[in-house]
Amino acid sequence: MMDLLGGTGGPVRIAGRELPRDELLGRASAVAAEIRGADAVAVHATASLETVAAVVGGLLAGVPVVPLPPDSGPAERAHILGDSGASLLLAAGGTERSEGEPPLVPVDALPHHGGGGGGEVPADATALILYTSGTTGAPKGVLISRSAIAAGLDALAEAWAWTSDDVLVHGLPLFHVHGLVLGVLGPLRAGSRLVHTGRPRPELYAAAARDDGGSLFFGVPTVWSRTAADPSTAGALRGARLLVSGSAPLPVPVFERLSALTGHRPVERYGMTETLITVSARADGDRRPGYVGTPLPGVETRLTAEDGSPVPPDGETPGELHVRAPLLFKGYLNRPEATAESFTPDGWFRTGDIATIGPDGWHRIVGRASTDLIKSGGYRIGAGEIENALLAHPAVREAAVLGTPHDDLGEQVTAYVVADGVGEKELIDFVAERLSVHKRPRVVHMVGSLPRNAMGKVVKSRLGEL
Questions:
Q1: Closest alpha carbon to 464 in 414, 390, 398
Q2: 262 by DSSP, 3-state: which?
Q3: What share of the chain is helix, strand, coil (3-state, %, to 5)?
Q4: Which of 72, 135, 147, 177 has the largest count of CB atoms under 10 Å?
């Protein structure tokens, strides 16, 4: 494991339970001894020390780890277990196991070992099999190598000046890149202390800032929005070194409120399960609301139009973002056709995200090509720009925009808004005053809430249900 994670460092605390680094490695070594030789193992990825020990044990043994969302439904759970070929399920003792699932290994009941991971594991060996959200079909298993994780974490450590002196605080789920790779493997590699708050609640972040000297905080926009809505909680973060936002775009008004209340301009970054983190603002550099920064070391990016022609880096013209880097995934498990389709003939990964790149290299993510690029009356319109314009209205709490069919325009700009004391016409006029008239919403639906997934992203495919 030492080729991937540091050998020394601070303790790990998860939801109030803490282990010194050497004891955690002892528990992980017990896991490694139990699973060595398996083709793959699943981990019931609750926010717990058992999850961390299980994942690290997989790394020690050189066995691919499949994090299993604890809230996954029966069909999704069965698909992940069956598709991955996991032969064992690692979890805390007493965890319920459904009929037909792999045998359960109670992580907390294994005899403790003194550490050590056995033989060398190749750098290109698969470390994790992370499953995508499955918005376009059954979730696909993304094969992530040890070398990709190491390259990605080292690039972030440089960009964020992340060292063993830091105390990382977050409460993110441990089955995604954000919470698991960055939020657990990151501090283990950097040697920094980890305080996982169990859940990503602003009051828990504030307590960790006051009581644990939290210096580096990870959150999704929902966390930061709630933090910015509570001045006393936000004020507790003034002593932090860096606030990092990811997994979804941070609305510009939230960026500005958070900056005013905490004294910190948050760092935004961009990545995917398939790419890890590829673009980020820097600890010692500029941070611009609405932008995700510039490529990390070793990362190349470009924009292409629908016909494959290059899009100029003028900061205005949107195109599909392509990435080439040593931290890309190895492919989709058992899906060679899907893997081949995700790359261009000259070897660039097609992210499916629409972005603009400025002359200075700064990237702005417009949204997903499938839902966030609206083609209306001959114009190409990014949904994110309109969402930020709506969120600038003081009565608007949440906003989501997408294109819906229109007989004349092809698509019309349609907004779903959570707001108090404001009507459709006022919001349409508000946007038209700030953006080009063709970008104004044609229809605004006033709703009680927006559907979101575990990482706080709006699930736009479900907006029609509202």
A1: 414
A2: helix
A3: 30, 25, 40
A4: 177
Question: pTM, whole model, 2 decimals?
Answer: 0.85
At 372-409, the pLDDT tens digits run 778 787 677 878 888 888 998 999 999 999 889 887 78
Quote the mean pLDDT of the chain.
91
What percentage of the chain exceeds 90 in pLDDT?
A: 73
Q: Which helix (H) or strand (E) holds 79?
A: helix 74-84
> Rounded to an integer, what distance in angstroms lies between the CA atom of residue 311 and that of residue 414?
27
Q: Domains (ranges, CATH) in the chain?
A: 12-187 (3.40.50.12780), 373-465 (3.30.300.30)
Q: Say how far apart CA 212 and CA 93 lie, in whole Å.
A: 30
Please name the helix (run of DSSP H) or strand (run of DSSP E) that holds residue 276, with its range, or none. strand 276-280
**Residue 325: count of CB within 10 angstroms of its CB:** 21
User: Per-residue DSSP letters for 173-226?
Assistant: -TTSIIIIIIIIIHHHHHT-EEEE-SS--HHHHHHHHHHH---EEEE-HHHHHH
**Going by C-beta distance under 8 Å and a sequence separation of 6 or more, which residues neighbour residue 40?**
63, 64, 65, 66, 84, 85, 86, 87, 129
CB 147 within 8 A of CB 124: yes
Q: Residue 113 pLDDT > 70, yes or no?
A: no
